[in-house]
Specification:
Length: 495
Amino acid sequence: MLQRDEWLGLARKLDWDYSYVSEEEVFPVLTSGKPWLHHKEWESWDEPFRTSYSEYVSNQHAKNESVYAVRDAVVNLRDYQALSPSWINALKLHAAALPLAEFAAVVGNLRAARFGRDSAWRTMSTFGALDEYRHTQIPLMIMHELIRWDPQFDWTHKFYHTNNWVAIAARRIFDELLLTADPIEFAIGTNFVFETGFTNLQFVGLAALANQVGDHMFEKMLTSIQTDEARHAQIGPAVLKILVKHDPQYAQYLLDKWFWRSWLLFAIVTGFSMDYLTPVEQRTCSFKEFMHEWIINQYGRSLEEFGLKKPWYWDTFIESLDLYHHMVYASAYTYRATVWFNFALPGPPEQAWLQEKYPKYWHQLAPIWQQVTEKWSNSPEGDEQGVHGKAMVTFCDLCQLVLCGGTPANNSATTLERDGRKYIFCSKPCRWLFEQEPERYAGHKDVVKRILAGEAPGSMPELLSDYFGLTAATWGKDIQGGHYDWLDHRSAEQD
């Protein structure tokens, strides 16, 4: 029997010349991506894992068995009921945002499995598609058990099938990145930027926090998924190496584009979880510290290896580490009924921790929570409506997230007029992205524009129930209903 090293190279590289059609017909530029190059330019494509199909199946089977063993040992309602209520809502946020996005990634990987320009790339993309099926199924299976205890967990599957404003923003990025991108853009945006960098925030950082809070099922699920991400993330550098050689300007644009868009998403999904929804006594580091350790240093080194530059907006990005997710959290807390998970009001211990970790701007952020605290103090306990925004917020015409850039004193929103219409953006990078591909983005309507066009109800109760698909049992609330030991409910005492 041949040794592995004797046959693997032949099994990985199975490209051939076509006798009945041209190479351009087999791999048209529209579906295979630009720049279009003959296969001889791609035949050096390589990645370090070099996994065979039999090895892949054996390894995945072992990992699945490990996940099932932990599920059978620890997944019951008593285990989850013993966890911190704030951490439970970090689970709801993560569970809704990612599993069906992983399912969309199946499409992107399968497109590369057909139109990737080297057979080894196509093989790895096939494994990537199988990985993404797995990453969809595991959280759906685990979170389904929790619906009978808390109906908000139903949004694990329901989220992307709604017109909820967060779902609109998430679809905005994932439809473009995972469903419609050609294999080259998919490899750069997903495999290199999204998976090589940002998923470490989710699958390494949150796994460590899950261990701290005692959520061993979530920890096991994340670490099991991350082992797959580490493998098919290697598609990105292998494609980027060849792209830089032939079109470095386009490579730089794709990196700049998807780094900013990935940052905005993960600042919310991971930033909320690390800095607000993990119990303060169990936080190992801040979101900003984790970004410096896993993203800034690693991403900077990766760019240097390819002779590429940091994005032109790097200073803006660094500044936003101290601000953006805090601003969005405060906004989302104020309009918490518009989402499917509950929020923790940061009290004195949490604010002291946040001030220590974010000293540069916390003096501007703290008054926001002081106002919220005063509203709770002047309202009866449990009176959610007394401490809730009344009108709809405004959204960015590029990322579709709320206009929460900049500081409380100096919002970074900026506008652009095009074809008789005024567009508004949360930041200069979002406006720049719009200007690069206006035909891709100009026709989209955010929730406010849908309301003004009569396509969505204008009243908040109807918007929540009829358009967002939320109910009194599922829309977001304060985790304690305003009942905190450190809160003085003066109006209640007066009654």
